[in-house]
Specification:
Elements: H1 27-43, E1 50-53, E2 58-59, E3 73-77, E4 87-88, E5 99-103, H2 110-122, E6 127-132, E7 137-144, E8 147-151, E9 156-158, E10 165-167, E11 174-176, H3 186-237, H4 242-249, H5 253-261
Parallel strand pairs: 2-4, 5-6
Antiparallel strand pairs: 1-3, 3-5, 6-7, 7-8, 9-10, 10-11
Length: 263
């Protein structure tokens, strides 16, 4: 009789990529997430070591698929760009995302947001931004000695890590690049790109027109020079001396003599 020995090797842990919930709960929520994610992609487009994601599960502890959250937008500096099904911190040099954004919607509860704050504080987030579009309220949390601390910043703030600007002094918040250029939607970016292309086309047409005018002026000058070269010998052959020819053609005597010598 042959007995079978059951393997004691632990089964591979499955890390879900989705919780079945929608990324956004309304159009405004979605548009703000896309605005932040898209413009941060543009800001760090030339840096291969900045990973930016939206609604991606972050697992901070290996072999534990219960502890996780999917920030609306997260930024992991010093991590390579690339596709991921989730952000497994132990596969990322144990580097947590440094910056996290959450956009409030009507379904968010105070208990849920308190749990998120505790999670982000416990697992290493350095900057945490919570924006409520319903009342244009921005909360800023920065890592201190004991975790994330709330910051009383007034109406304007600059991200220490990203150097982007926040402004809630108006009816809606305004995000802008380090140089002050505002974050734009893809529609606005497309319109600006089209306007720039049109301006470039106009400039090219103007340059072509200027070149054509210069070529026409050069042709006219060459034609005038040819007429003078033809007129000088004709007038000399009619018996006029060089001074008279110069006077008739508004030339100097030296010019008449030079043309006559080249005949």
């Amino acid at each position: 009789m042959v007995s079978q020995i059951e393997s004691s090797a632990p089964s591979e842990i499955f890390y879900p990529e989705s919780d079945g919930q929608p990324m956004a709960n309304n159009t405004e929520h979605f548009e703000i997430i896309v605005l932040i994610k898209g413009n941060l992609d543009i800001l760090f487009a030339d840096d291969p070591n900045v990973f930016i994601a939206g609604d991606l599960f972050w697992y901070p502890i290996k072999d534990n698929n219960k502890i996780k959250y999917a920030p609306d937008v997260m930024v992991a500096l010093n991590r390579p760009k690339g596709r991921r099904s989730s952000y497994k911190q132990w596969e990322e040099g144990n580097q947590p995302p440094q910056v996290v954004f959450e956009i409030l919607s009507p379904v968010n509860t105070s208990v849920e947001m308190a749990r998120k704050l505790l999670f982000y504080s416990q697992y290493g987030v350095e900057e945490y931004y919570i924006y409520n579009p319903a009342n244009n309220e921005l909360q800023v949390w920065l890592r201190g000695e004991y975790g994330l601390d709330w910051v009383d910043f007034g109406q304007k703030w600059v991200s220490p890590r990203l150097q982007i600007n926040f402004d809630v002094s108006g009816e809606q918040w305004q995000l802008s690049y380090p140089d002050g250029q505002p974050f734009m939607t893809f529609g606005e970016l497309m319109a600006r790109s089209q306007a720039a292309q049109q301006q470039a086309q106009v400039a090219q047409q103007q340059a072509q027109a200027a070149q054509q005018q210069a070529e026409a002026a050069q042709q006219q000058a060459q034609a005038a020079q040819q007429r003078l070269q033809q007129a000088v010998p004709r007038l000399l052959s009619m018996g006029l001396n060089r001074e008279q020819v110069a006077d008739a053609l508004s030339l100097s005597v030296e010019d008449v003599e030079a043309i006559a010598m080249n005949l």
